[in-house]
Amino acid sequence: MRSDSRPHVVIIGGGFGGLDAARSLADQPLSVTLVDRHNYHLFQPLLYQVATASLSPGDIASPIRWILRRQSNVKVLLADAQSVDPQARRITLGPGPVDDYEAPEHRTPSQTVDYDYLVVATGAAHAYFGHPEWAGRAPGLKTLDDALEIRRRVLLAFEAAEREPDAIEQRRLLTFVIVGGGPTGVELAGALAEIARRTLRQDFRAIKPESARVVLIEGGPHLLAAFPESLRAAARASLIAIGVEVLTGSVVTAVDDRGVSWQSSVPSDRVTGGAAPSVTPGRIDAQTVLWAAGVAASPLARSLGVPLDRVGRVAAEPTLQVPGRPEIFVVGDICAFEQDGAVLPGVAQVAKQQGAHAARNIIAATRGQPLRRFRYRDYGNMATVGRGAAVADIGGVRASGVTAWFIWLFIHIFWLIGFRNRVAVLSEWAWAYVTFQRRVRLITGPPPGPSDRQPPHP
Amino acid sequence: MRSDSRPHVVIIGGGFGGLDAARSLADQPLSVTLVDRHNYHLFQPLLYQVATASLSPGDIASPIRWILRRQSNVKVLLADAQSVDPQARRITLGPGPVDDYEAPEHRTPSQTVDYDYLVVATGAAHAYFGHPEWAGRAPGLKTLDDALEIRRRVLLAFEAAEREPDAIEQRRLLTFVIVGGGPTGVELAGALAEIARRTLRQDFRAIKPESARVVLIEGGPHLLAAFPESLRAAARASLIAIGVEVLTGSVVTAVDDRGVSWQSSVPSDRVTGGAAPSVTPGRIDAQTVLWAAGVAASPLARSLGVPLDRVGRVAAEPTLQVPGRPEIFVVGDICAFEQDGAVLPGVAQVAKQQGAHAARNIIAATRGQPLRRFRYRDYGNMATVGRGAAVADIGGVRASGVTAWFIWLFIHIFWLIGFRNRVAVLSEWAWAYVTFQRRVRLITGPPPGPSDRQPPHP
Fold first, then answer.
1. pLDDT digit string (tens) for A368-404?
2. ipTM of model
């Protein structure tokens, strides 16, 4: 799959890291191939808004080949990169795009792509504390399909409650547990509480949606551990004000068909709040459990043949190169990069800066110039807690409430890929803010087959 | 599941017929239950725009319970009505909304709903000329999930072609066959030709999307048989101008993993057009086959215990009652209603007018007043043929080209359910018209499991 003599850069992954790497190679005398198993780049910071029916998938995702259409030195392949052979400088692609529709004898033979330089930007998935069997009961939120599945489960739980004659079972159907108190968990919990208390208020006859329980469980002592203490407290107060029960210092010990079990890890700091303060210690009966905890790097890292850290990431050189493989770079969530004594967090800004830096180092390498060390510039941290409330810590300036929410809105709108999406998302938000409505409350997709109850690829 | 003493009207189906029946019962001393197996009302005339990546599902669908939220005498149930027991005046509901996620021992026991009056508005599905096994290879377009599956297949075919080294196979991957020359088939063919020739033009490196073949096959002698001859000719000319090969008088005899076979039914009127006039008679190798032909009424009609016509519809009384069952009404595609010597077509306007009429007759019955005969008022017929081209026949006024397209646009925008969607759809269209872009080119959803290769419910 080579057709010219320019150095060939293969980028695996079209997320923030891979896409910025590809863009930074524009107009260079290089041939670039970007491989992703989805045809779209996803604006992951807003994914929870698809899961909670505020935005459509098309609002936060754009086809990768459309984004890169004018960059003539890039070819985009829809493929699952299954392994890297660092010796042969070659990657192996998974099944062809239409193989699911083909009889076995017509499926695509295995394809490979050779590279001169490789950028691995395949990201990370959720980890289930060593219990991959929980994945089927407690979906995580990493892909558009995850978001649509969560939206489906949340809406179906209300529908089932409306049909349920038994009061105890109805209560279980209207209980939503979110595991993990980072930004994703906080944002999901806030949005679910709003759906129950505002959006669905008039829609049902047999149930009162506003009586739904939303419980956020965090194993550590604090929500939003990456934020300063004042903002953590503001976020927790906002959540409790909109009716979320917050349970910190509590580790989930089991997820089963009927709910979750947990036990205290830091009992002194547990806080219970919201309309229904009677959280039974140890057990919550719930139909819907959402997972926003733990992290496991993409399994592709294993084929690189270098040591990996506890969550499967590659400990990169200061130049983002893989130790002993100067032609391979790792960026984003798959890269464990130590700076000032700590590993950088798995956030979009780190991935973007690393993607661009890896591209610059590849250009330098092709010119025989020295490679430069990466250094992350932290512009800040933000999270939303429902309608008109957020926390932001930007360059040392801390804000919460409506101010932070407008900062969040402004930054996210202007950061979205593609002008069209910005207009669509802004109009959605303006409408939702005024009316409390969530327009995209659609239950779509097939029911889960037996395979969906299995854990995802290890 | 009864809680008051007012007469209980059950409506099965939240499409145009069922929804207008429910709305027409507002403010009446009746208790109304609307049952649908989806949580949304779908604006079916624009469904092909979701299938062809112009609109998001949320643009053309709204939750039924949201539409009816202020009508306090209506309760909405998400359920699959599996059968009617006319003797007992009772319907049986299928599995509970979350049963797919439940262990067998926790699934909902079978539920029933008693009625005093019943409106059956369950619509129709596509029929495969007695070959239900073709359904897996040639999806039809009736639901949002159908539309997302078609979008997925069309986009995946281009992706597979980009990775395909063999030129003959690449050609097969870039061949799209649409079976059925009614409005849905014409609209799908026009939109697919535009995607290939305009939308994707810059996106690929190994293939030229504009070389894709789009073939529209119709068994009868004409496209758009319900339209006057001048408009049929205009539609055919528009299709050929944007590169669609039109094959009328040709009946599909086989759909298999590699394409479709067909034979002439009306050889004298066959027309071949477009950029590649060499249609091989008898066989077209194609990866993607879409079905827009045939019709089969919802199987629920069988449980009514009355004779059905050839496609499974109930021959209704002039009052829309089921013969011998004065408390059961049929409306929309499940109702075979003869007027002026012909059965009314399965279009939205017929369903809407019948739904409202059935409601008025139910109100009359509860008051002991005589029931009135239904009469359809035909306001006209429209179909689009790609960007800025349409045909319209409204009250005897015939238009084609851009004029008809603006009429089509205006009517569809103002007919859409919910103000919010109108604004969103209009802005999508304006943007798409100016840029030729289709924003929602996302491949989502799980790959088809073994069950998806089976025919849908018979």
1. 999 999 999 988 888 888 777 888 888 778 888 888 8
2. 0.88
Of these residues, B187, B218, B317, B428, which one is catalytic? Answer: B187
Sign of the C-alpha dihedral computed for residues A92, A98, A103 and A108 taken in this order = negative
What angle (nearest 5°) sits at the alpha carbon of residue A272, between those of residues A268 and A274?
160
Give the amino acid at B376: Y
* Cα–Cα distance list, A256 to A131, A189, B405 (Å): 11, 20, 54
A169: which 2 tokens? 């079972």
Asked if A91 has any chain B CB less than 8 Å from its own CB, the reply is no
| Number of structural domains in chain A | 2
A144 and A242 both lie in a single domain: yes
Longest pairwise C-alpha distance within chain B = 74
Nearest by Cα to A350 from A8, A68, A3, A20: A20
What one-character DSSP code corresponds to residue A308?
B
> Alpha carbon of B135 to those of A293, A372, B124: distances in Å?
41, 57, 15
Helices (H), ranges, A367-418: 401-415
Residue window 350-389, chain B: list those with CB within 8 Å of chain A. none
In a domain, A42, yes or no: no
- CB contact, 8 Å: A430 with chain B? no
Identify whether the C-beta of residue B272 lies closer than 8 Å to the C-beta of residue B279. Answer: yes
Instruction: For residue range A396-455, list pLDDT tens digits in order.
Output: 788 888 888 888 888 887 777 666 667 677 777 777 677 667 767 888 776 665 433 333
Shared-domain flag, residues A241 and A269: yes
The alpha helices in B29-85, defined as continuous H runs, are 47-51, 57-60, 64-67
Q: Residue A167: inside a domain, yes or no?
A: yes
∠ CA B323-B326-B331, nearest 5°, is 75
Q: Give the pLDDT confidence score for residue A300 in this predicted structure.
A: 95
The CATH number linked to A318 is 3.50.50.60
Residue from the list B101, B137, B420 with its beta carbon closest to the beta carbon of A431:
B420
Farthest CA pair distance, chain A: 74
Please list every residue in chain A whose beta carbon sits closer than 8 Å to the beta carbon of residue B144.
Answer: 442, 444
Do A350 and A313 fall within a single domain?
A: yes
Query: Is residue B17 in some structural domain?
Result: yes
Q: Are residues B199 and B318 in the same domain?
A: no
Domain membership of residue A16 as a residue range: 8-37+79-126+295-366
Residues of B in contact with A139 (CB under 8 A): none
Q: Mean pLDDT of all residues in chain B?
A: 88
